[in-house]
Amino acid sequence: MTPEQLLHHYDRASLWPAATALNLPTAYQNALAVRRLRMARGEQPRGYKIGFTNRSIWPRYNVDAPIWGTVWDTTLTICEGEGDLSLAGISQPRLEPEAVFGMAFTPPADASLDDLLACIAWVAPGFEIVQSHQPDWKFCAADTVADGALHARLLVGRRVAIAEVAQGAEAFEQRLAKARVTLCRGTDAVEQGVGANVMDGPLHALRHFLQTLRACPGAADLQPGDVVTTGTWTDAWPVAPGEQWTAVFETPLSPLTVSFS
C-alpha cells in the first residue's frame, strides 16, 4: 500500500485488505512518508514509541527485534495518575504498561548509558494503547512498522525527576529493572511484569532505539522535550469502552489508572 492508503486505514480504523509483503527498510521509509503526511496536515511529533522490547512476547507476535514509531500531539495525554481516553477510531485496541522518559537534551553520538541518563529529564509510568490494522493481530515485523509501529495513544502518569531516582546509570537501571508492575482490569489482577523484561531495562531499550533510529535514513533525531515510551512490561491486553485499568508499579514509578470511553 502507498503511504496515502496507510494513512486512510489509520484514520478510519479499517483493516488492511492484505499483508504488505514489505521488507523492514521499505516499511520504515513508508512510515516516514506517513509521518510527513501527518505533519503536513498539522500534527506535530512529540517523540517516539519503542515496540517489541519485551523479548518474552516475541513468539506470540511473530517478531524477533524491537521496532519504533512516532508519538504525536494528537495521541499524547499527560496526567497525574488518573486519565480518561477514548477508544474511538482505534483498530483492535490493546493496552501496555510501560516506563516513559522525557528528554532534556539530544544524546551525543555513541552515547553510553551514563550519557543517556544525563540527557533525560524525567521518568514516568505510562499506558500505551496499541492497535493493529491486520486481522486478529496477525502480522510480520515489517507490517507493524508500516502500521505506525502499532501506536494509537499514550497516557503518561506522574513524572519523577531523574535525580530523585538514582545517581548514575547503573543504579538507575537496577532500580527500574527490578521494579514490578501488577496490571489490573477493574479490581482483577490479570498479569505481572518487571522492568527487566524490556531488553534488561528501559535505559537499555532507549540506547538500542537510539542506535537504530540514527541508522534509518531520513529519520529525525531525538529532540529536547520529546517523550520516549520504552516498551511493555507485560503482554498487550485487549481493552474496550467502559473498562478501567490500573498499573500498580513499584517505586520509583507510581500507579496509573485509565478509564476508557
Structure description:
The chain is α+β, with helices and mostly antiparallel strands and 261 residues long. The protein has helices spanning 3-12, 24-40, 58-61, 113-118, 141-146, 169-178, 202-214, and strands at residues 45-51, 67-72, 76-78, 82-85, 94-103, 120-130, 151-156, 160-161, 180-185, 188-194, 227-232, 237-238, 244-249, 256-260. Strands 1, 2, 3, 5, 6, 7, 8, 11 and 12 form a nine-stranded mixed sheet that branches. A five-stranded mixed sheet has the order 4-14-13-9-10. β9 (180-185) and β10 form a beta hairpin. The two termini are 31 Å apart. 41% of the residues are buried.
Fold topology:
Blueprint lengths: L2 H10 L11 H17 L4 E7 L6 H4 L5 E6 L3 E3 L3 E4 L8 E10 L9 H6 L1 E11 L10 H6 L4 E6 L3 E2 L7 H10 L1 E6 L2 E7 L7 H13 L12 E6 L4 E2 L5 E6 L6 E5 L1
Parallel strand pairs: 1-11, 3-7, 4-14
Antiparallel strand pairs: 1-2, 5-6, 5-11, 5-12, 6-7, 6-8, 9-10, 9-13, 13-14
Helix pairs in contact: 1-2
